[in-house]
Structure formats: structure tokens, C-alpha cells
Specification:
This protein is of the alpha/beta class. It has eight helices and seven strands. S-adenosylmethionine binds near residues 37, 64 and 88. S-adenosylmethionine binds near residues 62 and 133.
């Protein structure tokens, strides 16, 4: 992340006064147990987008402990919709179920334990909003399968697309393949889709369902 952006993100995070007990509990748990969850400023933006567009049927790839899922699931429930969320790790999947239960969201959540690469293909429905937040090596696959299931006026939100800033600065060589794949993915999105890249958080990609000719 550019230093100026790091400072900007830090400034934004410092302004966010979270009061919701369940959200605070999950943030503390994630910090203590090293669970990667969406950063606060990105969580607020996610909440803002989902609520202002009144998205009803939402898909998330990468549930973790259900932090972003709780934020989006509450709005989906209020709008009479549901959140389908996929997690590959059984321990995290079960922690997410506990949190959805605490948030009284189980009736409007379809939690799936499995690999997003395979599980999305089994979903026979349209989604208004897709939040991609799982293994970066599979972003292209997650994206293509989600795009096929995107409803009219739908939107795909891709988190961490600039991967710690490694796409534009020095990075440890072990990340070479993932950096190359993400870079190619961004080029592909600009060439073929209605896409914007926001240098916010760890880089956010937004895609509408408009097909570019
Ligand atoms: C960054 S965390 C998700 C955080 C969550 N969206 C939040 O902000 O609360 C990424 C999660 O994706 C899961 N994951 C990784 N690869 C996956 C895959 N192929 N299919 C489904 N989940 C996957 C990981 O186990 C991890 O819990």
C-alpha cells in the first residue's frame, strides 16, 4: 500500500466508532486468533453499498468467522433476501455459524462448507451482489462463475485486489505467481468489463453486470 494511502486508511479507521456488540466481539476474536477479516473502512464501504442499493440476494466467497457476512446478512434479511456464503475451512465455518446464530441471522443465511471453486458452480440462482474475499489464486475463476450468476443491475465486489501493494512495489519472490495472476486479472477486467479499481483498503475492484463490446 502506498504510504499516503496507508495514512488515509488509518485516518478513516480512527474515525469509525463501532458500537455494535457482536461486531466488536468478532473484531476482537479475529485480532486475537489471527483471522483475516475485512478492514473497518472496507467493512463500512461494503455496508454502505449493500444498503444503498437495497441488495437482497447476496453471495460471499470466503466467510471466515462471519464478520462481513453478519454486516451483509443483516441488510439482506431486512430487505427480505438472503446471504449465501462459502467457506472452505470447517473450524471457521462453525465459528461463523455461531456468530450468525448470535446475530439471529440463521433464517436468512445459506452457509456452505466447501471450496468456492466448486460450490459456486452448483448454485442455480441469480445474485444482486457478490463479495469475493477468498484465495487470490482463484479470483479469475470466482469472478467468471459469479458474473454468470449476476442479476441485472448487480455488482461484484473484489477485495484485496492489489494484494498488500505487491502489484506495484517490491514483494517477496514467493508471491510471484499470485502477483502475476492478479495483475493479469486486473488487465482482463479493464479490457472486458465495466470495472473500476479503487486504491482503498487493500484495493477494491467493482464490476457491474454490463457486458462490454
Ligand atoms: C479474508 S478471509 C474472509 C474474511 C471475511 N469475508 C470477513 O471479512 O469477515 C478469507 C477466507 O476464505 C477462505 N477460503 C480460502 N480459499 C477458499 C476457497 N477456495 N473456497 C472457500 N473459502 C476459501 C479462508 O479459509 C478464509 O476464511
Amino acid at each position: 500500500m502506498l504510504d499516503e494511502l496507508k495514512d488515509a486508511n488509518g485516518y478513516i479507521i480512527g474515525k469509525i466508532e463501532e458500537k455494535d456488540p457482536l461486531i466488536l466481539e468478532m473484531e476482537a476474536f479475529a485480532l486475537e486468533h489471527n483471522v483475516p477479516i475485512v478492514t473497518k473502512e472496507v467493512a463500512k464501504y461494503l455496508e454502505f453499498l449493500v444498503s444503498t442499493h437495497n441488495f437482497k440476494n447476496i453471495l460471499e466467497i470466503g466467510t471466515a468467522i462471519g464478520y462481513s457476512g453478519t454486516i451483509m446478512g443483516r441488510i439482506a434479511k431486512k430487505n427480505g433476501g438472503k446471504l449465501t456464503t462459502i467457506e472452505i475451512d470447517e473450524v471457521r465455518y462453525n465459528q461463523a455459524l455461531e456468530n450468525f446464530k448470535k446475530g439471529d441471522l440463521l433464517d436468512s443465511i445459506n452457509p456452505i462448507l466447501g471450496d468456492g471453486v466448486e460450490e459456486i458452480k452448483k448454485l442455480d440462482e441469480k445474485f444482486d451482489f457478490v463479495f469475493i474475499d477468498a484465495s487470490k489464486g482463484h479470483y479469475m475463476e470466482f469472478f467468471n462463475d459469479s458474473f454468470e450468476r449476476l442479476s441485472e443491475n448487480g455488482m461484484i465486489f473484489i477485495d484485496n485486489i492489489m494484494f498488500r501493494g505487491y502489484l506495484y512495489k517490491e514483494y517477496p519472490k514467493r508471491f510471484k505467481t499470485i502477483v502475476r495472476r492478479l495483475d493479469e486479472f486486473i488487465t482482463y477486467l479493464y479490457r472486458n468489463h465495466d470495472f473500476v479499481l479503487l486504491p482503498f483498503g487493500d484495493g477494491i475492484g467493482l464490476v457491474s453486470n454490463k457486458v462490454m463490446k
